[in-house]
Amino acid sequence: MTTMKTLNFVICAVLLVGNASAQSRFVPIVDLPVGGLIGGSLDGKWVDASTAAKRVKKGDAFNWYLLNGTTISGVQIKEVEIAEPCEDFYSATFDTASMGLDDGDRPEGTALGAALNWDPTPRDPVALSDAAAKSTYSKIVAGILRKNGLLKTVPKNIRAWRIDLDGDGVEEVILQSQTWGDSIQPQAKAGNYSIIVLRKIVAGKVVDQIISSDYVKKNVEFGAPNRYRLSSIADLNGDGKMEFTIFGEYYEGGGTQAYEMKGNKAVEIKELHAACGV
Fold first, then answer.
1. Measured between alpha carbons, how far is 110 from 271 in angstroms, rounded to an integer?
2. Which of 11, 72, 202, 278 is 20 to 30 A from 96 via CA?
3. What is the mean pLDDT of residues 241-256?
4. Could you give the CA distance from residue 41 to residue 43 in angstroms, rounded to a whole number?
């Protein structure tokens, strides 16, 4: 009798373990600046926004990981819905009243489904002060601008973050600079620009990779110049490496694209993006 009870217990335990291992772990990803679902991670693999949207329900909890190092846990989502006129943009609205934020507030950062079982910030990005970023990287930015035809433009609004993205023990630098200030307009003057640059040490030398860029070489009365900014840095799928997202906007819309490190370069994650505009 005792043997039968023991056997039954072992069988139940095996079944429980089997069921647990068979369960898939899905973590949706919302880019806060764009205000939309960009996709998700399913057992560590990327899924696109349309696939992710089918698995997100009203009231699901998300944790916010802001670029300034702040973490806000347990923020409930109100809804995920298609935002007209964009048929493939899944607008994500959170219950932010208890946080003292308006629905329209979009801090720099990412929101991940609270079911995740890894640390999205295994390494903390270090933001340089405005003065340090300017003094350290003005010549670098000026050189990039000259190579792209902006010979007389003075670098402005330089921001920089140091972070070991791929976990190899050596920090990369994500560099951001643009002339637009706080808002983007349809008009542009020759010399306006916006760039995001990844600086990585390869074989003992610093290599600059232009991630996003817009260079205005002649006056534009009415157009769609782009302003880019770093949106978030986080481990989005639990592999120990850190991805980053770039938010780009023009006067009638915007979008976000996620990147991951492969070898010595950052490459677009084709599944993780969202955009809406006219």
1. 16
2. 278
3. 95
4. 6
Say which residue the tokens 């973490």 belong to. 71
Contact 221, 236 (CB under 8 A): no
Contacts of 263 (CB under 8 A, 6+ apart): none
Q: What is the pLDDT of residues 139-175, one digit of tens each?
A: 999 999 999 999 999 999 999 999 999 999 999 999 9
Q: Are strands 109-113 and 227-234 parallel, antiparallel or unpaired?
A: unpaired
